């Protein structure tokens, strides 16, 4: 029974990581790739580390707090790193996919540029 | 049964690591490469986690933690460098 639970956690985690990798090679622009990579890879790694934690807790009666700390750290930092990377990609002028129909940030950035020009 | 499933998951994780590596090589812009390397670091954590179960050792727990921290700091530093040309801002206004 314990075996089945750990296997299911590990298998779902591995498949989610594979899904993120496939999304990263198939999406057309940086922002789509970031969307695929950050979310599903994070969830996959969290599930795999949960399986590791359960294995050591149930088979060897060891409470490995470092694994829990890893889960917390990945959960906190992956969205932050994704946001920083997408912001730097937009500011350095990486183009959106040519079939994108909406770009709300562009108007705001143009307004900011005009404000800076008027001040100087 | 557990060993078989874990070896299958190990193969899946190595396929996804390889795909991230391909994207890091062919990525058209620098941002693509940063995203690919960040995902490579996150997948490497899962890979070592599976290895921990297969070998039944907790010796890799610190390594996993340091890998997570290094992937995060590396991505942030590269993104900041690409955006501004510097890693630390120096204006004291």
Compact summary:
In chain A, 82% of the residues lie in helices and 0% in strands.
Task: Describe what you observe in this structure.
The complex is a heterodimer of chains A (120) and B (93). Chain A has helices at residues 2-26, 30-59, 65-91, 104-119. Chain A has 120 residues and is mostly helical. In chain A, helix 2 runs antiparallel to helix 3. The longest helix of chain A has 30 residues, at 30-59. The radius of gyration of chain A is 20 Å and the shape is elongated. The mean pLDDT of chain A is 86. Chain B is mainly α. Chain B has helices at residues 2-26, 30-55, 61-84. Classes of the chains: A mainly alpha (120), B mainly alpha (93). Chains A and B meet through helix 1, helix 2 and helix 3 of A and helix 1, helix 2 and helix 3 of B.
Q: Descriptors for this entry?
A:
heterodimer, A: 120 residues, mainly alpha, 82% helix, B: 93 residues, 3 helices, 81% helix, 0% strand, elongated
